[in-house]
Specification:
single chain, about 400 residues, alpha+beta, Alpha-Beta Plaits, MutS, DNA mismatch repair protein, domain I, DNA polymerase, domain 1, 4 domains, five-stranded mixed sheet, four-stranded mixed sheet, 15 strands
Length: about 400
């Protein structure tokens, strides 16, 4: 049976959400990635003043940008200081993940009301299996893709009605092609790609556009003279296996020909939840102890809130630090039993902190909770192992934290 797999990607999602809040910024280059100090200021006359990239000083990076800003050469992951040199007049807005998550829930609810077979791939993208929808399954006549096109358009219309935002959607025979296709006609695209379209629409694209070809593999392919997907498709599969190994080399050959048998997975349990923040300036564990302590506590509270909201508890508490020389270290501690208590998380993360050197300044701090399960689920260990996992001090709200440095 023919498959119709869709990949839906929200257009410049974070930036588009902000433009709903600040419609006067439409048409202007806008960058998302600032901190609280970059919050717009309401003037007495009702207008707003906005921070601009030209005045930014710090170590932050761009989370996303409007298409007008991207036209100036800035993009997600770029340092804000570098972006300021390219687009000094661009408006800088703070990140508001709570609002982005709210809009994410809205658009996914609108989509699943039409196409319930959804694989959630993050805050702004999903896969859909459209094959069993009546308008697709029953499509006949001179235009068998007409039903597919109509369903895809109805999904786009539902997203806009629910959120006021646009999305791009591609429908193809598999997930790999759909991921590639959703980026072909952005923004607000509706793209249909069949096997017959692969030579004209897919093969001219850079090889690195295939999801699964990372920077190192792309660099190696380029050194071997392969730059496009078409050139990769033309390469002898045994030659690819010789250079990249049996598994990856064979996959490169299949991917370049648009072959992918993966199913749309409607549900999977997350392995961990985490929160992290990059500081506007490098902080020192002793000299900035009070500030770091407040940030550390807030991260633990935020990840605990995430656990409660999503309905999980976790046993493994992790700490992540990045130093001013960009070296990153992580430490984990497994508790006797699962928790979603911010105090327990804070205490365990503090124990992890004792096991890392703190002589250098820090530029990033993160807290992670792993080994997730649902509250009340049967314990994985032997009977009695999880009878009462927390110490008396951890359960008693009157007991203060005992933590090193911060």
């Amino acid at each position: 049976m023919r498959r119709y797999i869709a990949h839906l990607d929200m257009d410049a999602f974070y930036a588009s959400v902000e433009l709903l809040r600040y419609p006067d910024l439409r048409g202007r280059p806008v960058v998302i990635g600032g901190g609280r100090r970059h919050q717009p200021v309401q003037r007495e006359d009702g207008t707003r003043s906005y921070a601009q990239l030209r005045s930014y000083v710090g170590r932050g990076v761009i989370t996303t940008a409007t298409y007008e800003a991207r036209a100036l050469g800035v993009h997600s992951g770029m340092g804000l200081m570098k972006a300021a040199a390219l687009a000094p007049e661009a408006v800088l807005l703070p990140v508001d993940f709570d609002e982005y998550r709210r809009y994410s829930r809205l658009f996914k609810a609108a989509v699943t009301a039409i196409a319930p077979h959804m694989e959630d791939r993050g805050i702004d993208e999903i896969y859909l299996d459209l094959g069993e929808l009546p308008g697709v399954r029953d499509a006949v006549g001179d235009d068998p893709l007409g039903g597919v096109r109509a369903v895809a358009q109805s999904i786009k219309d539902a997203v806009r009605a629910a959120t006021g935002l646009s999305c791009s959607i591609a429908v193809t025979p598999n997930k790999l092609l759909s991921k590639l296709g959703s980026d072909l006609d952005k923004p607000d695209g509706l793209t249909l790609v069949t096997e017959a379209d692969i030579p004209t629409r897919i093969w001219p694209l850079p090889a690195k556009r295939i999801n699964g070809i990372g920077p190192k593999a792309n660099e190696k392919l380029a050194a071997l003279g392969i730059h496009t997907i078409g050139e990769l498709a033309a390469a002898d599969p045994q030659w690819l296996i010789g250079h990249f190994g049996a598994s990856y080399g064979a996959w490169l050959h299949e991917a370049a020909h648009g072959r992918d048998d993966r199913a749309v997975v409607t549900y999977s349990e997350p392995k961990s939840l985490s929160r992290e923040t990059t500081f506007d300036r490098d902080l020192h564990a002793r000299q900035d102890r009070e500030q770091l302590g407040a940030i550390f506590t807030r991260l633990c509270e935020q990840v605990a809130d995430d656990l409660v909201r999503k309905g999980y508890v976790g046993k493994t508490i992790g700490l992540k630090l990045r130093y001013d020389n960009f070296k990153t270290v992580t430490r984990d501690l497994t508790l006797p039993g699962p928790t979603q208590d911010p105090r327990v998380i804070r205490q365990a993360a503090g124990q992890c902190l004792k096991r890392v050197p703190l002589e250098r300044r820090l530029r990033l701090l993160g807290v992670r909770v792993g080994s997730l399960s649902r509250p009340g689920a049967a314990p994985e260990g032997p009977p009695g192992d999880a009878e009462d996992s927390t110490s008396a001090d951890a359960r008693d709200p009157s007991v203060a934290y005992t933590l090193p440095l911060f």
